[in-house]
Write a structure and sequence with these properties.
458 residues, 6-stranded mixed β-sheet, binds flavin-adenine dinucleotide, FAD/NAD(P)-binding domain
């Protein structure tokens, strides 16, 4: 094999960068990983930063590509649906799918990243921790890093991947030559931010609330969610507007926090003994969508994962999408010669951009759905019908299932078909009044006709 294009720098050893480096090594390249933070296997650096995540089929497919899906599965907890908590503490389970074997998985960010680090090191990939990239030349592949002692180190690669997340330094370098590149960039913040809290294990070391679901406390304009962890705790995330009566800006003192939780989340509060301390100490972080293009920011540089397309977390797809980038890239690479990076990057961005845009839009839609629509009677009837159809008919998939469980269907097709299906089902429910009044075979035929009309095969 020729050495042309063999030396690859992956900037950012988060979830996407680590997986990417592993795949590149398996394909015969010589990747080197650079990470600004310390090694999370020996330092605790996760506090307040999405401690656990929902891993679903697209992410598992990517882990499968590098031979790690089984290992990852050993550290997951299945979540079969949304367990909805109303203000009186009544619970209602809303399954994710009508198929009993479709579920999503709660996984620790740190544990998953550690599995990737272990595998990367076992393959002989160097991981340079505490190395912050401070500048890059997208055309020459020259990179400058600063270590913890402020020493500067230079590195030159045949290809550079900017896998350095939403605040990407590699992307900033592209913005500096934005007119030359005609580099488009947009960042849209939500009016809401988030804060992580927790529910500890019970005194007899068990889960305090059901562990096989993603808990949601939907409250129309805001919400709280909870995902289980292997140590029987829950990571709780509170999504609130910054301003207004129920906004972070107005919930500051212990009395405010207590009053607020007693009013909106009375069933959760007794399970949160560290609520006041965590609320005060854990950061309030912002949420937003980043879109940019081109992702090939120079002859030798490609943005990937959140650096190219950061999305809001409400479809549980950011990591899954970043992992799927690697699957798509892998496929693209098969069409080109080894190390033909210019053409590989060009083809990748053309194929992938529409799908990244689609999941960004779907994730924004789902924020409204999770905090507001899940409690709406028409929406609840629609879900009931979807569950019935999925349970009985192999060929039907709801929008949620298209996105989450149909890993071979591009996000853009899932969006197009999913939205059209939603529109049809909601219209029928409104006409007939309830899911039970709808002729199953007739609606199934209409759904299949819709698929044919949109020219989508799944
Ligand atoms: C609250 C919240 C909940 C979420 N929940 C889910 C979920 O349930 N399911 C899901 O699929 N996704 C979820 N996501 C999204 C997911 O976290 C991201 O999409 C995913 O982490 C993207 O991976 P990445 O590797 O591209 O970026 P990151 O994970 O951000 O990794 C980037 C890495 O680059 C490093 N880095 C940054 N700058 C530099 C530099 N200058 N030099 C060297 N290294 C650098 C960082 O330290 C980091 O390790 C959630 C996100 C949030 C905020």
């Amino acid at each position: 094999m020729s050495n042309k294009g063999k030396n690859v720098a992956v900037v950012g050893a988060g979830l996407c960068g680590s997986l990417l480096a592993l795949r590149l090594k398996q394909l015969g390249y010589k990747p080197v990983l650079f990470e600004k933070r310390p090694d999370m296997r020996s330092a605790d650096i996760s506090a307040g930063r999405s401690i656990n995540l929902a891993l679903s089929n697209r992410g598992l497919k990517a882990l499968d590509l590098v031979g790690l899906s089984e290992k990852a599965r050993t550290i997951t907890l299945p979540m079969k649906g949304r367990l909805l908590h109303d203000r009186e503490g009544n619970l209602r389970m809303s399954p994710y799918s009508g198929r009993p074997n479709d579920y999503i998985n709660s996984i620790s960010r740190g544990d998953l990243n550690s599995i990737l680090y272990d595998a990367a090191e076992a393959e002989g990939i160097p991981i340079h921790f505490n190395m912050s990239c401070i500048s890059s030349d997208p055309d020459s592949g020259e990179l400058k890093f600063q270590d913890h002692s402020k020493n500067i180190q230079n590195f030159k690669a045949d290809a550079v991947f900017g896998a350095d997340g939403a605040g990407s330094v590699i992307r900033q370098a592209a913005m500096k030559k934005s007119s030359l590149l005609r580099f488009n960039f947009s960042q849209q913040y939500l009016t809401h931010g988030y804060k992580e809290l927790s529910i500890p294990a019970s005194e007899n070391h068990d889960f305090r609330i059901a562990s096989d679901a993603l808990h949601i406390w939907p409250r129309k304009t805001f919400m709280m969610i909870g995902l289980p962890n292997l140590d029987k705790t829950f990571t709780i995330t509170l999504f609130l507007p910054y301003t207004g009566e129920d906004g972070f800006d107005n919930i500051r003192t212990d009395a405010d926090i207590t009053r607020y939780f007693q009013k909106w989340f009375p069933d959760a509060m007794p399970h949160m003994p560290k609520l006041l301390e965590e609320y005060r100490t854990n950061p309030t972080s912002s949420l937003g969508t980043i879109r940019c293009y081109p992702w090939k920011t120079g002859a030798k540089t490609l943005l990937i994962g959140d650096a190219a397309h950061a999305i809001v977390p409400f479809y549980g797809q950011g990591m899954n999408c970043a992992f799927e980038d690697v699957v798509v890239l892998d496929k693209v690479m098969k069409n080109f010669e080894f190390g033909d990076w210019g053409n590989i990057f060009e083809a990748f961005q053309i194929i992938r951009k529409k799908d990244a845009d689609a999941i960004a839009d779907l994730a924004l839609d789902n924020f409204i759905e999770m905090r507001d629509k899940v409690d709406d009677p028409v929406f609840a009837e629609k879900r009931k019908l979807e569950m019935k159809l999925e349970n009985k008919y192999q060929d039907y998939y709801s929008k949620y299932s298209l996105v989450t469980f149909k890993e071979d269907l591009p996000y853009s097709a899932a969006l197009k078909l999913g939205r059209a299906q939603d529109e049809l089902l909601l219209q029928k429910i409104k006409e007939k009044g309830s899911a039970d009044q709808i002729d199953e075979l007739k609606i199934l035929q209409e759904l299949m006709d819709l698929r044919t009309k949109l020219e989508i095969s799944i």
